[in-house]
Amino acid sequence: xxxxxxxxxxxxxxxxxxxxxxxxxxxxxxxxxxxxxxxxxxxxxxxxxxxxxxxxxxxxxxxxxxxxxxxxxxxxxxxxxxxxxxxxxxxxxxxxxxxxxxxxxxxxxxxxxxxxxxxxxxxxxxxxxxxxxxxxxxxxxxxxxxxxxxxxxxxxxxxxxxxxxxxxxxx
Length: 171
What we know:
Helices cover 53% and strands 0% of the residues. The chain is an all-alpha fold.
């Protein structure tokens, strides 16, 4: 049996509709204005939070972001977590499982801490992340701020273009 025999009698009965790309642009507002509703729930003042978000959006490490904002690195990390940034936790998924086990009283804190291999500061930050959900609606603010500097990834890629290999390099 040939492929043409298998395909005989098949016909397309439904056409695909092109709905386009849905876009939402909330970057018109100032970052201070967009962070204002969350100011009371953040561990720092709004000026520092703006600096933290802008620095993070440009690819700066959390400790340098904290220095620029004039706050402790822990405060900067907590602020980013509460605003919905991902990748802030210093622990792996297994480390977070250990914290969950400790919080649910399945193991002791000292045992969870020892098994995690984390420093006191890393363990404290991971515990904060496990016990505090990001603020409702804050992730959209962070996404908007990251969209403000959306070309940062492109700029980074362009800067590293010489070091990257392409598909043609594999042949």
